[in-house]
Amino acid sequence: MGLGIGIYARRPVNVGRPMPWSAFQKFVADTFDGDYVELHEGDDVFALDIHPGSEFLRFEKEGDGFTVEIKTSTLGPGFHAHVVDMFKRLAAAGRLTIDWAEADETGYAVDGDFAALQKQMADQFHAIVNILTQRAGDDGLYINWPIGVPSPIGNPGGLFAPVGPLSAAWCRDFLAGKDADAKCREFYVWWNKERDADYWRKLASMILWSEVKWRPATSESEARFWGMVLAAAEEAEKLGAAHLLPAAELAELRELLEWDEDAPYREPSPKGIGYYRHIVRWPLPDNWSMELAGYFIEYVEDEGEGEGSPMWHFNDRTVRIATFSADSDDDSPPSVEDLLAPALETAPPGAQIIETTINGASVRGYLGEVEEQGDRFTALSATLALPGRMALVAITFTDPAHHDWAMQVLRSVTPPAESDAAA
């Protein structure tokens, strides 16, 4: 659900023929130079990263033409107007014909009524909040949240948005019309047409809340993305909004971006802006999930062939989880006992045996001291099983104080719902 732009148009014509796709890709990139951060190339598809809070602007080849669809209500009316302006420039440069009455469902590209566009975005936001808050449970629900990324938890009856959490009380007041205009302005990063001080402040806040992991950056893309916060803060300061910026979080981010890569990481304070300071729900393969602090570093362990298993670590703590959907030779799913049978084969002497049920799955495993290549550590190894499905969990740590943490992670592992399992 959302407002946006959907375009079909013929590609520019060169000597009576449609411009070749590769040439069209270069034409778009050149015309939009300065409006995007990165170009992602493909054979019949290419995409531009035009804003840190937006989905990619994706061009797909279709016969002699191209299609583009982008949701603009993730950021607000100012972003919608910006995208319309981009395509009007593209149309002028390439002599393209765009049916704006069909392409822009808001009507803004035709009538240019920005106040009406703001009202449409406000009305849509009201409708979505009304629907979602009726369904929000103890953990809350999500609005404009990307798919496949860790999700915050623990906002009873409220909503999580990239710009920060919207409490149940905030949502009730908004639906009742209390400070509704101010709440729309706070929710939409790009509410006004221009990039004003409020835009830069909210852009910085959005990245701090929903992107920064509050530990040192572990890749160039993380460092570049988080660095946008400081750039946005500088723009806000130029426009006189320095007093509205979160000074403590900006100072913390600067320190993290300059962190000595050989120094141990500091566990972030739970206080302050940022979802990933806290425990979040991580999506796992095959629709499993688990709860783990958002500042853990995720990567895929290379197993040499096919896709590897996801792995997370933070200093001395490591979590590995592999999920499987198994079928036996006679086409009936293996029994739970068959899946659990190997779970204790590697248990060290004196290990604590784990036999329990977690979130509807039968669990068998152990917790004990292990030595590998001269290193001693504690290992928690467990199999969670359902008919035909299982997850293998391996957690290691060296500090005895992390015993309860390891058990908490294990207890959070959740199998897919029946509807997901059948999909």
Report on the structure:
- The protein has 423 residues and is of the alpha+beta class.
- The protein has four domains: 4-110, Alpha-Beta Plaits (2-Layer Sandwich), CATH 3.30.70; 113-194, no CATH class; 211-274, no CATH class; 278-422, Protein Transport Mog1p, Chain A (3-Layer(aba) Sandwich).
- It is 33% helix and 26% strand.
- The protein is built from 13 helices and 20 strands.
- It has helices at 21-31, 77-94, 100-103, 108-111, 114-135, 168-175, 180-187, 197-210, 220-238, 247-257, 336-340, 403-412, 418-422, and strands at residues 4-10, 13-14, 17-18, 38-40, 45-49, 57-62, 65-71, 141-142, 151-152, 159-161, 164-166, 279-283, 289-293, 297-301, 309-314, 317-325, 352-358, 361-372, 375-386, 389-397.
- It has a seven-stranded antiparallel sheet with strand order 14-15-16-20-19-18-17. It has a five-stranded antiparallel sheet with strand order 1-7-6-5-4. The chain has a three-stranded mixed sheet with strand order 8-10-11.
- A hairpin with a 2-residue loop joins strand 2 (13-14) and strand 3 (17-18).
- Helix 8 packs antiparallel against helix 9 (220-238).
- It is globular and about 75 Å long.
- The mean pLDDT is 94.
